[in-house]
Design goal:
The structure holds two protein chains of two kinds. By secondary structure, chain A is α/β, with parallel strands linked by helices. Chain A is 36% helix and 29% strand. Chain A is built from eleven helices and 14 strands. Chain A has helices at 42-49, 71-76, 93-103, 108-121, 137-148, 167-182, 194-200, 218-224, 241-245, 267-280, 295-303, and strands at residues 4-13, 16-26, 31-35, 57-62, 65-66, 78-81, 155-159, 186-191, 203-208, 211-216, 229-235, 250-256, 259-264, 285-291. The two termini of chain A are 34 Å apart. The longest helix of chain B has 30 residues, at 56-85. Chain B is globular. The chains are: A alpha/beta, B mainly alpha. The interface between A and B is medium-sized, with 30 and 26 residues. The complex binds adenosine-5'-triphosphate and magnesium ion. The site of magnesium ion (MG) has 4 residues of chain A, from helix 1. Magnesium ion binds at residues 42-43, 83, 159 of chain A.
Chain lengths: 306, 253
């Protein structure tokens, strides 16, 4: 039995179809990424999967439980971090966690231990009796993640858990996601950061306009869009772009500020040639970067020819 | 099968209790609750009663009815718009509780507030020499009316807004006229035919009348009529509240 099974899932708002006949499944123990630009339908899908809104049609099974027929039973085994949610700011971290425990019917002795453990793990223990009002955004997000773990869920739904966080806080959340996954939790992660999906996910569904454009492992997705990687180089003095265009494997050359961008599907080879070129022309390399395709590139490619 | 259903209902009731505990911690001390629930009935009472020559038990019964009415309808309308604005609602909607459970939790918090504050006019009455002839009836009446008005408050907050002030204004526009048609300030028997007809559609009429019965048996309706009327209003308000909130919840996210 898969962790999540989705069949013909559709949601309309008036005439507008936000989620259009989706079909996919999430296997047990995987981190499944749901990647798409603003308005793609990620949050709408996540809300349907977690029983927060009702689909217009389609079937959703959480560990084999139909969430529309049996919402309480299905919700009991999932943890949810909604996109723009908040803890109760008038309550302390501790009371927020205890409230969660009570909503999931967790007995007192168990919930006390669990709350302590989670607060330690998220480095919030010394703040446990402080009202959430006084927390920074990063602390709040950690608490919200902790709250979603109070019921020790089998599946965790995270809707853009790192958006708006600084590098350190988002690193911490990402590490925690990997750790939770190692402990055996299945994770459904919504994001519009390509790199985040790349680092974390076993498989990614790319969603656009309510449709799934592709589902695959991150590296395989990237392979589908060859020719869209680039190497960015800056020399101490300006060079003729035509020299670079002549190199083997370069598809296109574009100026990017005072640097040049060489589009290719074999960045490694280009780097060798660039080093040779700088030696023979007596140039100094100031910057050299290779870039994998961005989400935008993937979209353009995946939605081409539609 | 039935055992499983009963266990599930008990489970949901426990979770409703958790929700009301949360409400108590957060909402009892909020500005609008204190203003509309405590200060408002006190001022209204003073404004209308001063200088009028009415028996004290009649006054206290009116004050008591009005207090239960205002306090019980002051918390439930605040919760939904506040939690829409503070973005706590989606979290709640994703947890394993039904909308009925959430609303029941809100109602319980409001009922406890209503009952608690209603002790003030009762103690005031006792201090002024009012005797409570039917304490049991009074207790039943207060509890029932608190439930009824708390459920009524939920109907005000069923528009999917995050503006507490909008909800409070709307609810005041309904609550104010109700006070004047409900025989709080005038004996029901002294009202013309149309006045009595109008009074009969307000739940506040019945709780005030029950208070009058409990103090001095100066009631207009029989106890059974009043109790049944309150139960009927409670059922209607509760069913409507659940239906309306089920519709409005997705629009709040
Ligand atoms: N309650 C609603 N009423 C009307 N339209 C809605 C509603 N919720 C979402 N939409 C529309 O559905 C589309 C998908 O929205 P959704 O929030 O699922 O996108 P998303 O992929 O999560 O985007 P983001 O990256 O901005 O979070 C959007 O065009 C949005 O305007
Ligand atoms: Mg979203």
């Amino acid at each position: 039995m898969n962790a999540i099974e989705v069949n013909n899932l559709t949601k309309r708002f008036g005439d507008f179809t936000a989620v259009d006949n989706l079909d996919f499944e999430v296997e047990n123990g995987e981190i499944f990424g749901f990647l798409g630009p603003n308005g793609a339908g990620k949050t709408t899908t996540a809300r349907m999967l977690t029983g927060i809104i009702k689909p217009d049609s389609g079937l959703i099974k959480i560990k084999g439980i139909d969430i529309q027929r049996n919402p309480i039973k299905a919700k009991q085994i999932i943890g949810v971090v909604p996109e723009l949610s908040n803890a109760y700011t008038d309550l302390s971290a501790w009371h927020n966690l205890q409230f969660m425990a009570q909503l999931y019917g967790i007995p007192k002795n168990k919930s006390t231990k669990r709350a302590e453990k989670l607060l330690m793990k998220f480095d919030l223990y010394e703040w446990k009796d402080h009202k959430v009002k006084t927390f920074s955004k990063g602390m709040k997000q950690k608490l919200i993640l902790a709250m979603s773990l109070m019921n020790d869920p089998e599946i965790l739904f995270l809707d853009e858990p790192t958006s708006g966080l600084d590098v350190r806080s988002s690193r911490l959340i990402k590490d925690m996601v990997l750790e939770l996954n190692k402990e055996g939790k299945t994770i459904f992660l919504t994001t519009h950061y390509m790199e985040e999906a790349n680092q974390l996910c076993n498989r990614i569904a790319v969603i656009n306009h309510g449709n799934i454009a592709a589902i695959d492992a991150p590296e395989k997705l990237k392979m589908r869009i060859g020719g869209l990687k680039w190497v960015e180089i800056g020399f101490n003095i300006p060079v003729d772009p035509h020299d670079l265009h002549a190199m083997q494997g370069v598809v296109d050359v574009q100026k990017s500020g005072d640097k040049l961008r060489l589009y290719t599907d074999k960045p490694g080879r280009i780097v060798y040639q660039l080093v040779d070129y700088s030696r023979s022309s007596n140039l100094e390399i100031l910057t050299l970067n290779t870039m994998t395709p961005t989400l935008e590139d993937i979209f353009i490619k995946l939605t081409e020819g539609e | 099968m039935t055992v499983a259903v009963i266990l599930m209902v008990i489970d949901q009731l426990k979770r409703a209790l958790a929700i009301s505990k949360k409400d108590i911690m957060i909402y009892y001390l909020k500005g609008p609750v204190i203003i509309f629930g405590v200060l408002f009935p006190a001022f209204l009472f003073v404004a209308f009663m001063i200088g009028r020559d009415l028996p004290v038990d009649f006054l206290i019964a009116g004050l008591l009815g009005m207090t239960i009415f205002f306090t019980s309808t002051s918390i439930t309308p605040v919760i939904a718009p506040t939690e829409t604005q503070t973005r706590n609602l989606e979290r709640l909607a994703s947890s394993p509780v039904s909308i009925t459970t959430i609303l029941l939790g809100d109602i319980l918090a409001s009922v406890l507030f209503g009952i608690g504050i209603s002790l003030v006019p009762i103690l005031l009455g006792i201090a002024l020499g009012v005797t409570i002839t039917h304490p049991f009836t009074l207790a039943v009446a207060i509890i029932l009316a608190s439930f009824c008005f708390s459920a009524m408050g939920l109907i005000f907050s069923s528009t999917p807004t995050s503006m507490t002030s909008t909800v409070m204004m709307m609810s005041t526009m309904v609550k104010f006229p109700l006070v004047f048609i409900s025989g709080v300030f005038i004996k029901l028997g002294d009202l013309p035919q149309w006045g009595r007809a109008l009074a009969s559609i307000s739940p506040l009429t019945y709780i005030t009348d029950l208070c009058r019965y409990s103090f001095h048996e100066t009631n207009y309706y029989s106890v059974y009529v009043s109790i049944s009327a309150l139960i009927m209003f409670l059922i209607i308000f509760m069913i409507s509240a659940v239906k309306l909130h089920e519709k409005s919840l997705p629009k709040r996210l």
